[in-house]
Amino acid sequence: MRWSSPARRIYREVGFVIRAGRTAVGREELAVVLGMKWAAFRRAKPYSAEGFPEPVSSVDAKILLWDLEQVEAHRDGRPQPAIPDVEHGEDLLDRREAAVLLDVKPRSVDTYKTDPRLADHVVVVGGVEHWPRSAVLAYAAGRGTMTAPSGRPKGSGDMVPRDLLPGRIAELIDADPAVTSAHAVDVLGVSTSAAQKHLQQERAVRIVALMRREPGLGAEGAADRLGYPLAVRRTALKAAQELFDAS
């Protein structure tokens, strides 16, 4: 199946990855979601029908993946929920998408992926290897392809490119769950509003991830477990609850 030209343009502008908090399914899972037997599914190829959700796999990928929420909405005759276009450290990237982020050829990723810094974070979705955006960015930084600013020169604008910021924020929270936006501004050279926004988003994603790993654990309990102080908890909890309810 080849994507239409409009879909390719959308991919280049937005980037169809498996967004944090979303679930992707391959053909076999898709057949189950649609309530079709495998043989009938293979003959009918329902994903080729007009109006069916576009794949979230990279362009020209051999194994196609679809966003589960969009597929369920299409099946039920509901409007398809939009896929967020905001990068998160826990977005999942396949080899082609990781290659774009690393500015290398996909075949280079086939070599890099044996490195523990990537191998320890691999997530297989529909038979396809993926890596969290934060792991890919951390690997890139470790290879010396990126350098973090030691501070924010007076009068400077945002210093960390937008697509790198989620990974850098994730590293700060890894080192100190109570990290402040002021510290992020000093270390990353970004604006206060950018630091606050991305710290909130990353904390929310981690709260939701922990709630899913431990059913029955509430957002407050997850925030406690993750070591988030009261000063930053309110906004993170609100964002986490919205993300959890939407998933």
Beta-strand fraction estimate = 5-15%
**Which class of secondary structure composition applies to the elements?**
mainly alpha
What does the main sheet amount to? 3 strands, antiparallel
Uncertain regions spanning at least 5 consecutive residues? 1-15, 144-158
Broad shape? globular
Number of discrete domains: 3
Radius of gyration, CA atoms, in whole angstroms:
19 Å
- Strand sequence of the main sheet, in spatial order? 3-5-4
Helix content: 40-55%
Distance between the termini: 28 Å
- Topology pattern, helix = H, strand = E: HEHHEHEHHHEEHHHHHH
Task: Describe the protein's architecture and organization.
The protein has 247 residues and is mostly helical. The chain has three domains: 5-75, no CATH class; 92-142; 165-246, no CATH class. It is built from 13 helices and five strands. A three-stranded antiparallel β-sheet has the order 3-5-4. Helix 5 (95-102) crosses helix 6 (106-112), helix 10 packs across helix 11 (192-213) and helix 11 packs across helix 13 (230-246). The protein is globular. The chain starts with a helix and ends with a helix. Residues 1-15 and 144-158 have low confidence and may be disordered.
Concise summary:
The protein has 247 residues and is mainly α.
List the helices and strands and how they pair.
Layout: H1 5-14, E1 24-25, H2 27-33, H3 38-44, E2 66-67, H4 68-75, E3 92-93, H5 95-102, H6 106-112, H7 116-119, E4 123-125, E5 128-132, H8 133-142, H9 165-175, H10 181-188, H11 192-213, H12 219-226, H13 230-246
Antiparallel strand pairs: 1-2, 3-5, 4-5
